[in-house]
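New to this. Help decode the following:
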Amino acid sequence: MNSNAPILLMLALGVAIVGRFPADAEPPSPTRDSLPSSSRAILLAEAQPHRATFLGNPQTRFAPPLERPSDLRARFRDEKLKPDIAVILAEWGWKGNLEDLHYAALTAEITEVQLPYGTRMPFMSSRKDGKPICLRDVIWEGKHPAPAYVFTFSSNGRKYRCVTPKACSNFFIEDLGPELSRLELVKTMPAETSVCDPFEMQLIVRNTGRVILNRIQITDALPAGLLTADQRSATNFDVGTLRPGASREFRFHAHATAAGRYENRAQVTSAEGVGAEATASTSVRAPILALECEAPGQVYLGRPARACLTLRNTGDAAESKATVTLPLPAGAVVVDVSEGGVTSPTAITWELANLAPGANHQMCATLSLPQPGALSLVPEAKGLCAPRVQSACGTRVAGVPGILIEVVDLEDPVEVGNNVVYDIRVLNQGSLPGTNLRLVCTIPASQEFVSATGATSARADGRPVN
């Protein structure tokens, strides 16, 4: 037989193939010019495709025939076949991930198709002497369309179609081109919250493409004024790997240090360079306390002073509990306290619940001091949420001079012509010194001034004696 003539070979396809050289011939040497002309003809034939005309030869088929989709899943699940599949794909130079192929074979939708005459396959798995081989560039030239099972999958950024003829399980893989890679990130937080309350943030990352994405990371840098529960200004999440359609959810708590509107932007990235961003915003409200103190400018000693405190919430959020404290000045005596006030030796305290925005509440206390002087009041208020505020007012406690004059004649009755002594005493019974005092005595017409002694000199000016 002429070794250079085309012949029919029953190879691993389990097919009849128009071949390139006899079954017992060795592949030609890569150095074409060093070979005789007949060998060069064989090398030229190497580039021609295999022409398959029959499927199902038990000696060359890759695995038993398939009757239903579950049979195909069983072939890819078979631990004995997995190494042979790896050999075939390595010979072909496939750049995909075997795990992606096996996972898709077990989970993807499998459909049945008919391979028409002339279908060209980039390669096809087969066997020779029981060993797996990869036949390249195969054309189906059978008399009838060949039924086959098909499923699609993605791996390393590309989309593939795995086709397996039912008669022989001789699979091949078609490269359908770059796969769409896409990540979606959704961030949510309350539209409105209070500076008093921590709130929850939620992040959901979803692989909306058709490619497995790896080493996915979420970075969430909080805007100034927002902190996590452990007082950090940013948080990161290691998502790992996401298959197409898969998603993961992350939650964490944050709080605001001041009222205002905050916009937060988070980012997600993957090892493949695919990323996305998401933003969410919240309006943070806060109670703001304002405290006023009013007291009379002056009271006289012995008369009580009534001081009143007014607490207002000028913010835009309710204060759940406000405490107002009025420290007592040294020596002050509490005469009366308005409703809700609790008196201790050092202060009067009121507690107010749920002080709404714009609301106000008045508290009063009546005090007295045993001595003249300044009555200084420095009340303060604080909330569970609202910061501490202070106010101040005061009263001057004034003393009053109380002058008492006593006049006693040391001898009574008095004979005409004799002297009589009058003892005059001036006593300040009040709480304030009397100043610029002047004592004036008027002598009756039946008497005449003789002399006077005392703390100051006296002078007679007619009947009056000063």
Remarks:
- The radius of gyration is 54 Å.
- The chain has four domains: 8-178, 183-285, 289-398, 400-466.
- The first strand starts at residue 8 and ends at 10.
- Residues 1-46 have pLDDT under 50 and may be disordered.
